[in-house]
Amino acid sequence: MSGQGLATNLLVLQGEVEQIAALRYTPAGIPLLSFSVRHTSEQIEANMQRKVECDVSVIAMSDLALRSQDIKPGVNIRVTGFLARRSLKSTQLVLHINALEII
Questions:
Q1: Which of 46, 52, 59, 95 has a CA 20 to 30 Å removed from the CA of 21?
Q2: What is the mean pLDDT of residues 73-85?
Q3: Is residue 37 a part of any domain in this protein?
Q4: Contact, 22 vs 35, CB < 8 A?
């Protein structure tokens, strides 16, 4: 699609909370919580088992940010959301979450 309509952008990630920033507010007054999740697993690629490790930047906004602000590093979570650029001028991707489950 050329930027219009709904296209699939869904990511489910399980991992351990690494770093968590203090709750802050956008200029529009929306609560925002930034943290990173470290994912480690084994996946199958080209019929071979491969160890996968990655750190993913995550943003929670609004009520989800308020409910998540007491999460501590080391907690295992599963998050669901979508990928977007960190800002208009950045190519770095950030996972904006719509759901968070402590596991």
A1: 52
A2: 97
A3: yes
A4: no
